[in-house]
Design brief:
The complex is a heterotetramer, with 2 copies of chain A and 2 copies of chain C. By secondary structure, chain A is an alpha+beta fold. Helix content of chain A is about 35%, strand content about 35%. Chain A has one domain (about 1-140): Aldehyde Oxidoreductase, domain 3. A 4-stranded mixed beta sheet of chain A has the order 1-4-6-2, with helices on both faces. Chain A has a 4-stranded antiparallel beta sheet with strand order 5-3-7-8, with no helix packed on it. The longest helix of chain A is centred in the C-terminal third of the chain and has 18 residues, at about 100-120. Chain A is globular, with a radius of gyration of 16 Å. Chain C has helices spanning about 10-15, 30-35, 40-45; strands spanning about 1-5, 20, 55, 60, 70-75. The chains are: A alpha+beta, C alpha+beta. β2 (about 30-35) of chain A pairs antiparallel with β2 of chain B, so a sheet runs across the interface. Chains A, B: Converts molybdopterin precursor Z into molybdopterin. This requires the incorporation of two sulfur atoms into precursor Z to generate a dithiolene group. The sulfur is provided by MoaD. Chains A, B: This is Molybdopterin synthase catalytic subunit. Chains A, B: Keywords: Molybdenum cofactor biosynthesis.
Amino acid sequence: MTVRVQENPFDFGAEAQAFATGRTDAGAVVTFTGIVRDLVQSPLHEMMIEHYPGMTERALSGIEADARTRWDLRDVLIIHRHGILRPGDMIMMVATASPHRKDAFEAAEFLMDFLKSRAPFWKKERTGEGEEWVASKSEDEYALSRW
Amino acid sequence: MTVRVQENPFDFGAEAQAFATGRTDAGAVVTFTGIVRDLVQSPLHEMMIEHYPGMTERALSGIEADARTRWDLRDVLIIHRHGILRPGDMIMMVATASPHRKDAFEAAEFLMDFLKSRAPFWKKERTGEGEEWVASKSEDEYALSRW
Amino acid sequence: MIDVLYFAWVRERIGIPKEQVQTSAATVADLVDELRSREDRYAAAFEDLAALRVALDQELTDFNAPLEGVREVAFFPPMTGG
Amino acid sequence: MIDVLYFAWVRERIGIPKEQVQTSAATVADLVDELRSREDRYAAAFEDLAALRVALDQELTDFNAPLEGVREVAFFPPMTGG
């Protein structure tokens, strides 16, 4: 069970490989990776991610512990970056390992739904037209209601 | 859009990394990996996976094309091994890329549900007590009914 | 002449992975009846059709499907991929 | 004395990320009223509470929560992680 909040890039392939390797206790591994998308209207120069040091780690650990009480998980990994990112950069990843594919999928979706609107991160986009804070989406808030 | 059926191992980390790298069109990437589990009752010596050459590729390509009509997918990868595998070996992986995390998750679950009971693979387990074909699970058949 | 393929325990019970069959069976079910009457190993393999699946020219179908124009029939247990 | 932290556009509107505040406010809402009355930049930041979230000692809560025993209050817009 690992939670990491960092400014540096992470190596998605190596993390995914290490997470899944030699696992004879859990036949199902799911990963989710969030990537900075370019914008259609005005090309994105960079994305700045602000966070709340201390609370971020608490919130992520809390979400992870909650997931473990709900599903049969043998391992969980959460990595989330902050700082300056550019289109194509990986923002974050989660990984779940379970004996059951349903558990691995649901737990990963649950972690993502909570990361979206309960972990203290804020995104700001800088384009040729200036800077703007990314607005939260009502669909993200709604997504929490199913858990 | 890639479908591969092969006897050789695949490099999950490298495949996942290549799939997610440089993607500025799709912010959400989901992977699922199936791993040979050891058995609790009697240690598993090996798993033999038989398949139906020709039909396998057709079935996987058909499932992949079906997924693309149902969700907004920018890329899909399916790799499935056959032959002899041992505990901890990776049997297969799917990966999906979409602008929306819900689409990436649902499409990966859909692909897995179909791979489980509509792609012509059959697993046989060899333990100290002999060899046995893995029985299909009614829950796997049931899982298809939601799509 | 039609190619008939067997997989997994169906292949093991019948003892071969593939054979060519001369048949005028109208449907899959008719072909199964012909095979069953041949030898015990076929009767054993086709004992319980509910435990079997069939594909015609590499497409899943059911036992009532017509055989006209079909080149390849495959019998196997429910799949266990993934 | 209580540490008050601001994030994202709340931080930008108020102009500082953190300050120490001497207060006897009973609830978060009372503290917000005190801050609003200080200067226009606070009034601007706290204009619409529905657009804000609050955490006490790093736990999300609501504006009716009591402040007794709390060492750190943080104000910020809805989160946009992931």
